[in-house]
Design a protein that fits this description.
With about 425 residues, the chain is α/β, with parallel strands linked by helices. It starts with 8 loop residues before the first strand and ends with a helix. The protein is globular, with a radius of gyration of 22 Å. The chain is built from 17 helices and 14 strands.
Length: about 425
């Protein structure tokens, strides 16, 4: 299934893709890809995996067109959990050592002198090749077809596709790393990615600072590209309200429902309800469920919702929370701000904290359970404060995440890639 025309070809590489896929990097990819179809012949190279917890190839292998984008899906190799655990154990000293040097503020200097690290490289590659989203067919396709593309844009460095795109097509690879401060970014094998690709497009200045501090002066050309947000028409509220049995007042979490993202926020909320018994606030978790759920009267789950339903549920929320420690941008924060919703976010994430400060506190950050309870009480009880925060949030998104500015940056980077 070829989309024949005279436009230059452009490929995105991402771990999952489709209208029914719920995930920040995947949604990020979709928004950029669909905004480039008028200028380029756009393709997406991805895997057949839907559930990142199981790694099962649920989507059929092959090609389909989604909103004028040609999507090529390749099966992921079977995962080997026991091998993966063993390889991760063998590879762990590299991450620990580099992270230690970072904490001592020595890694930037050392990386500027010795930009490429090979310590535990073989174990890291073995671990990567044993995990979810490793697709030998996808990587062979990239290796054999890279010359057909003007540029290849790989999103999210946590998994194998971005690494192998950079390995096989470094001279025309634009990496959008969506990186944050956790163990993955300290792998030795990433030093060859961050020093050899054509360009690195960061989402925020906090993410860019992290990248430069880890990889030193020899880091590849880089800058802020970021992404805007979609504003689909909201679904009819009464239908959405009844379909999901939503409460009148609710704190909203939106995203993948798993422990790694939630960071004790359900326990914090239940402690809030115990302390402030008169509060009518409920907790609604919106998104695909990948972990165990909590059966409590004040907590409810919607599961996956459509984009229009998502917009309606955001619009009618009282407060939106993002408890993640690991964000490179946070689309849900921007979406909530664009709808004038006040936010409460995890202050241990430098990117979320930066949004709070730059928006003149359209969002509040918390640093502990006690801090969470105190600030949630403010937002729950002070209507004027919520309104002021909402107004600041709308202004912040309009001034900093305009699509024309973002796509202008991306197109300039693409055009600067040497054929």
């Amino acid at each position: 299934m070829e989309m024949g025309n005279d436009k230059e070809k452009l490929a995105f590489v991402v771990v999952r893709y489709g209208n029914d896929i719920n995930g920040g990097a995947e949604y990020h990819c979709k928004m950029l890809a669909e905004r480039l179809v008028d200028d380029y012949d756009v393709e997406v190279l991805t895997t057949c995996v839907k559930n990142y917890m199981t790694g099962t190839n649920e989507s059929p292998e092959g090609e389909e067109i989604i909103n004028k984008v040609l999507v090529r899906k390749f099966p992921a190799n079977p995962i080997h959990k026991e091998q993966y655990k063993q390889f991760m154990k063998e590879a762990a000293p590299a991450k620990r050592w580099r992270r230690f040097l970072y904490k001592c503020r020595l890694l930037t200097l050392i990386s500027s002198i010795f930009p490429i690290w090979n310590y535990k490289r073989e174990a890291e590659i073995n671990a990567q090749n044993s995990q979810v989203f490793y697709s030998s067919k996808l990587f062979s396709f990239i290796k054999g077809n890279k010359d057909n593309y003007k540029a290849i844009i790989a999103i999210n460095l946590d998994f194998p596709p971005a690494y192998y795109t950079a390995l096989y097509a470094s001279e025309k690879t634009i990496i959008i790393p969506t990186m944050h401060y956790h163990g993955v970014v300290f792998r030795s094998i990433l030093t060859s990615v961050f020093t050899k690709v054509a360009y690195i497009g960061f989402n925020t200045t906090a993410e860019q600072k992290l990248g430069r501090n880890i990889f030193g002066r020899k880091i590849a050309p880089n800058g802020i590209i970021s992404v805007g947000i979609e504003k689909p028409k909201a679904a009819e509220w009464n239908e959405t309200l009844n379909k999901y049995h939503l409460p009148e007042e609710y704190l909203l979490y939106a995203g993948r429902v798993d422990d790694g993202k939630l960071n004790c926020v359900i326990d914090y909320f239940l402690a809030y309800k115990k302390k402030y018994k008169k509060s009518a606030l409920k907790f609604v978790l919106m998104g695909e469920i990948f972990d165990k759920t909590v059966s409590r009267p004040d907590v409810q789950y919607t599961g996956f919702v459509s984009d229009s339903e998502k917009m309606a549920i955001i619009q009618h929320s009282k407060i939106v929370v993002n408890p993640s420690k690991y964000e490179s941008l946070s689309l849900i924060l921007l979406e909530a701000m664009s709808q004038c919703r006040p936010l409460l976010v995890n202050g241990h994430c430098s990117v979320l904290k930066e949004h709070c400060q730059k928006s003149d506190y359209a969002a509040l950050y918390y640093m502990s359970k006690h801090d969470f309870l105190s600030k949630l009480y403010q937002l729950d009880t002070l209507n004027d404060q919520r309104v002021r925060m909402g107004e600041k949030g709308c202004k912040y998104v309009e001034e900093n995440y305009d699509w024309s500015v973002i796509m202008g940056r991306l197109k300039r980077v693409i055009e600067n890639i040497k054929s």
